[in-house]
Structure formats: C-alpha cells, structure tokens
Fold these 2 entries.
Entry 1:
Amino acid sequence: MPLVLIEVPDEAAVELLRHQKNVHVVGIVTNPAAEALPPPAAAPAPRKWAGALAAISTTSAEEWDKHLHEIRNEWERDI
C-alpha cells in the first residue's frame, strides 16, 4: 500500500479520516518525524494569459472558438 503524507486543515477533517479508518478505507499512521517537516512551499503565482491570447491572430481565435463550441456540445448535459 502506498504511503502518502497529507496535511489536514482542521479537526473536522481529522475526524472524517478517523471514520474512513473505521470502515477500512484508509489507514492512519502517526509519525513523530512528520511533525518536524517544514511547511509546504507557497503555491506558484497564477499565469498571466492575456499576453498569450493577444498574440494569436483573429482567424486562429475564430477557429479556436468554433472548435471549443463544437466540443462543448458533444456531450449531453442535464444541468
């Protein structure tokens, strides 16, 4: 079974994990060394797409828009 380290945001999430352990969905392994791990790195800044969108030609943009419209209508949606 693969071992995965997760950060649990609050006590409610810990309780949810305990319930999953009780029904044998997950196993909980406590590791004192895990407490000494450094905090995760900050998320990278979101990419700025405006420059990329401005760089395509009008024809390419129209073709892309048509393609997106076609693939969005391929699936039946009951929303």
Entry 2:
Amino acid sequence: MGRAYRGDLPGVRELLSSMQPDHLEEVSAAASLLVSACVEEMQQR
C-alpha cells in the first residue's frame, strides 16, 4: 500500500508480479473495499 500511496507504479507492478493469484484476488478485494470507504467518506464531508 505504501508504494501505491506514493504513486510508485513500477514498484507496485513489480510487487504484484511476484504474488500468487489467490493473493492478487485478496489484494483486489481489499482495494475495492478501500475505494468504497473513501468515496463514502468524501460524500459525507
């Protein structure tokens, strides 16, 4: 998450390329949840 937060796209891609498919699915689900929570928070402000 730190790499993504800093905008280090090459670093994110490098990390993701080393992950197993089941871990990629978990990261994707967590990222979707984070996006939804952020959108919800922004709408409340």
